[in-house]
Amino acid sequence: MGDMRYYKIKPGTAYDTAVKKYFNLYQKWNAVYAAVGELLDEEITMMVRIPDYLQIEFKELQKEENKKLFKKDGKLKLNLKKAKEIEAAYKDIVKNAGLSEYQTIGSINFAYGLMRYSGETLKMFSTADHEIYYEADFDLEKDLRGHPVGRVCSYQSRKLSIGKNTLKN
């Protein structure tokens, strides 16, 4: 592993806007969990946060009628009428929560070229104010040059304080 380098998102970039949108929408998923739990009359605490389809932790299901509606991987069996109704209700729940355009941070990072290759290290940290910092053992800024969205991070000349109280991973 090479020397670690530290980066911060450049304010005002499209990437910065996408990440801020992610943090603003993220907490809205709690209401979706509750609504899906109410829909199924089950306690749902684990679910894939994707607006287009419902996938839950199958092991959380207690009721036999619900177990028949889901595959073992937690996806709905869409060949059943009741499952199709649940899927439609889920999409309405997501839409009403304002999460139709939600993207995971991994999807956002991939879209903007913030990724590592085999043998490289890239860690992301966020502050309580939702500022994003990266720790990498390669030149992240150089790798982003030429990317259609341009550079979205800037190199920090001093090592960031990446303590448990300062930043969270």
Helix content: 25-40%
> How far apart are the first and last residues' alpha carbons, in Å?
20 Å
Q: Within the largest sheet, what's the order of strands?
A: 2-3-1-4
Low-confidence stretches: 145-151, 162-169
Q: Main β-sheet, in a few words?
A: 4 strands, antiparallel
Number of helices: 6
DSSP strand (E) fraction?
Answer: 5-15%
Structural class: alpha+beta
Tell me, what's the shape?
elongated
* Radius of gyration, whole Å: 20 Å
Mean pLDDT: 83
**Number of structurally distinct domains:** 2
Q: State the total count of DSSP E strands.
A: 4
Element-by-element helix/strand order = EHHHHHEEHE
Describe the structure.
The protein has 6 helices and 4 strands; from the N terminus they run βαααααββαβ. The protein is of the alpha+beta class. The protein folds into 2 domains: 5-24 and 103-156; 29-96, no CATH class. Strands 2-3-1-4 form a 4-stranded antiparallel beta sheet. A hairpin with a 5-residue loop joins β2 (122-126) and β3 (132-136). The radius of gyration is 20 Å and the shape is elongated. It starts with a strand and ends in a 13-residue tail after the last strand.
